[in-house]
Amino acid sequence: MKKPELLVTPADVNQILPLIEAGADAFVIGEQRYGLRLAGEFSREQVVEAIKMAHEKGKKVYVAMNALFHNEKVPELAGYLQFLQNAGADAVIFGDPAVLMAAREAAPDLKLHWSTETTGTNWYTCNYWGRKGAKRAVLAKEINLDAILEIKEKAEVEIEVQVHGMITMFQSKRSLLGNYFEYQGKVMEVENRKQEKNMFLHDKERENKYPIFEDENGTHIMSPNDMCVIDELQDMIEAGVDSFKIDGILHDPSYVLEVTKLYRNAIDTCSEDLDAYEDMKTELLEKVEEIQPAHRPLDTGFFFKETVY
What we know:
Layout: E1 5-8, H1 16-22, E2 26-29, H2 44-56, E3 60-65, H3 74-87, E4 91-94, H4 97-106, E5 112-114, H5 123-131, E6 136-138, H6 145-154, E7 158-165, E8 168-172, H7 176-183, E9 200-203, E10 208-215, E11 218-222, E12 226-228, H8 234-239, E13 243-247, H9 253-272, H10 274-291, E14 298-299
Parallel strand pairs: 1-2, 1-13, 2-3, 3-4, 4-5, 5-6, 6-7, 7-13, 12-14
Antiparallel strand pairs: 7-12, 8-11, 9-10, 10-11
């Protein structure tokens, strides 16, 4: 049975080798000027170093260019894409068609992964972007398991699914936090997301706390829970889903490392011995729960939500 790629989000270059040893097959890195909601900031020099380290171990590096680009940034795209192609990046993650257009001229040999966060909801759309040049489609987090399996069955491109971590609930290009504090007559320096991990919106009615941060791309509000489907991988592995992503944004590196080890065990066991996976999957979930931060309850995201038309 084909094993899906285990895709992880490192916070810095120093995490690359430990995560490879833990079982990661590929990494998403980048800088916030071009990428959205990354676990860490990677300068051009660090991108080159990360790619070199990963390739020496036979692993892959995908660089995020999935921000929405206004006119003033569009002229920069060709140069950054050429840099990534020369650096040996295995793919670029994009959502804005401006990246696709720039890549055709500036970096025609660079693989593209289509990811718009919310619109990867059906196989027809995935295949449309495949015909435009994308080699992979990153599915939306708001679709259920039945939809994922149907998409994989009919998709002509690789399919990536998030299996663990936060889900984005809202993004605005506006500086909502800065504007709010300015309105309150307070001065607040907006922290880089890598440094600011303790800011929440508190919904007393639902008793939920939503992580919120602000960066160059605006304001981001995340889900109150972490999704975890370590005990529900069988159907997707049997269907041939190409990549499972662990999103480690706003989590400590040690947590991401341990979760990677657990998913590596789950994927290998499920691919090689289904009965053994059935016997151990409850224990795997319990091990995740043991290291889960108290303020981040686990759930299964939208995997088992009923689709309403």
